[in-house]
Amino acid sequence: MSVTRRTAVADWACGVLYLFLVLVLLTAAPRASGVLNAVGCLLAASLLAGVVRRRPAAALALTLVGATAVVVLPHRPTAIALTLQGQAPFVSFVAADLALGCIVATRTRRAALAAVVPAFTVQLLVISVFSHGDFLVLNGVIGLLALIASCVVGLLFRERREHAVALRAQEVAEAVTAERLRIARELHDMVAHSIGIVTIQAGVAGRVIDTQPGAAREALRAIEDTSRQTLSGLRRTLVALRRADPDTTAVEGPAGTREDSLAPAPGLADLARLAAATADAGVRVEVHVGGKQRPLPAELDLAAYRIVQEALTNVVRHAGTGDCRVAVDYGDEELTVEVVDDGRGATGPGPGHGFGIIGMRERAGLLHGRLSAGPRPEGGFRVVALLPLPESVAAGAETR
């Protein structure tokens, strides 16, 4: 027997047992007070706890039948219970109100309205027919307030659940957007730098191929090296996107070779190679490292490297100068990255001023850092990123 079928059988068994216990309660003790009958009916309704979660409409129908039976079936109250008889039997409708609140909280608004109408009608009829004298208005008001309270609590639970679902959907959407922006930054910083170098080297090779074959060969070699590095970075990025496949540990390289997909991402330790590649593109880079060098978290190391890479790309493509300076300072509480050139500075909006600076600011912002980029008063352009160091790295620096 399947789980669903066993659950359905258990629900029906609990419903039948509930009605049976209500009948036994009313027939075995016909002279019991209304208080005992109502309390016994409520205790028997605990059998419907699972039914309320899975089939609240069926639970509502059963509790309405049980509560109505407690009020309607003939019994002779004792003299002591005569005073309590006016109100006590109607307490059994509390179980029906709880089931109604569950329907309002978990079902559609149409289903909730369809459940409120019969619940209100049954309680109104029973109270109006079987209440007498001063108890008629009192029982009617109490019953109406209990029904309204159950609906209000159900609506509150519904709104809370819908709000949680909306927050979860918003978190998922924000996570997807953040991942898309991260991939866009990686591709932009990686490809823009490499394509800029390849473009310049290709132009050099085209101009000197007839007069200076050696220089043309050097330019082509630089193009080949840069293209290989870019291809490796693209493969690493694509494999990271497919990391959901546990078997994806390596990718096919040129000529059928295998390349490790878990190759480390670039960091500040690769600044010398980055400076050499930029020098091949015609811009000499002076790298100065200050402070006590120490291992950095991977995301911080990668962000600092990408900021330098994008700044150098802008120097190669837009500065119109042959020199620039890169300074990296390992402070006690933050890492400072500065790229300065003596070129013509910013020339205004254009293709070269699209997403590069935006990407650098996003990288710094994700690490709770700050980035400033703009022309210098004395000429040229300056990019400065201040990236806070984690407490563990800063504490290690203070200890040393």
TrEMBL record:
Transmembrane residue ranges: 12-29, 35-52, 57-75, 87-105, 112-130, 136-157
Keyword Transferase listed: yes
Enzyme Commission number(s) from the entry: 2.7.13.3
Recorded catalytic activity of this chain's protein: ATP + protein L-histidine = ADP + protein N-phospho-L-histidine
Gene3D superfamilies recorded: 1.20.5.1930, Histidine kinase-like ATPase, C-terminal domain
Domain Histidine kinase/HSP90-like ATPase: 299-391
Residue ranges of coiled coil: none
Keywords: ATP-binding, Kinase, Membrane, Nucleotide-binding, Phosphoprotein, Transferase, Transmembrane, Transmembrane helix, Two-component regulatory system
Highest taxon above the source species: Bacteria
GO cellular component, one term: membrane
Pfam families according to UniProt: HATPase_c, HisKA_3
GO molecular function: ATP binding; phosphorelay sensor kinase activity; protein dimerization activity
Protein's name in the database: histidine kinase
